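Researcher: Let's do a round of design. I'm pasting the structure tokens now; please hold your answer until I've finished.
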């Protein structure tokens, strides 16, 4: 059996190697000293520990620690913002069940945050990093490239444009503050479902 670290497409039941060669990893099973694929996907060998695994070809999108995600702010409380996670930023695929995550006031931005309502508003679209994926999802928007990427005016519901220090509504002139991402307004071409560009 080849021990190359490159990926190979396999189907369930394909022989991946023996227990003498490899340690069985995710997407595999061992039977009588032989390791087989349990999924349709790509065979990978980790040369550091000789673990063989199968990464599903059409895996259901899930979120993990350190992932970037797009989400919609549903509620802003005194100590946290409640966010519906819409898509993984890496592939723009919707996360099944639209899980709920939270941004604690201490993780909203670098430095002291007096009021979370000064950083987010319901309906804002944010890009955030996953600090913890289980048992509950905890997010951070503290880094410069994280935060609000699209927001609507709280007065007239027009899309807010980036100004020098604040966001400004071209429709009514209202000015609002958010913890914006460095790429504010630069949503992917498809846009996550429920994004703030949709007519409201």
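Researcher: That's everything. Go ahead.
Model: Designed sequence:
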């Amino acid at each position: 059996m080849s021990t190359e670290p490159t990926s190979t497409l396999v189907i369930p039941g394909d022989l991946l190697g023996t227990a003498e060669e490899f340690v069985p990893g995710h997407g595999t099973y061992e039977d009588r000293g032989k390791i087989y694929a349990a999924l349709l996907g790509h065979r990978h060998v980790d040369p550091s520990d000789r673990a063989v695994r199968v990464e599903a070809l059409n895996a259901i999108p899930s979120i993990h620690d350190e992932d970037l995600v797009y989400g919609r702010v549903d509620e802003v409380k005194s100590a946290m913002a409640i966010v519906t996670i819409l898509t993984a930023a890496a592939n723009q695929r919707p996360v099944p069940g639209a899980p709920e995550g939270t941004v604690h006031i201490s993780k909203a931005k670098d430095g002291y945050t007096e009021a979370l309502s000064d950083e987010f508003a319901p309906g804002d679209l944010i890009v955030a990093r996953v600090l913890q994926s289980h048992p509950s999802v905890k997010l951070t928007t503290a880094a410069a490239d994280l935060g609000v990427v699209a927001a609507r005016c709280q007065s007239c519901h027009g899309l807010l444009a980036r100004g020098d220090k604040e966001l400004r509504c071209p429709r009514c002139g209202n000015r609002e503050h958010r913890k914006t991402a460095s790429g504010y307004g630069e949503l992917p071409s498809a846009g996550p479902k429920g994004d703030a560009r949709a007519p409201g």
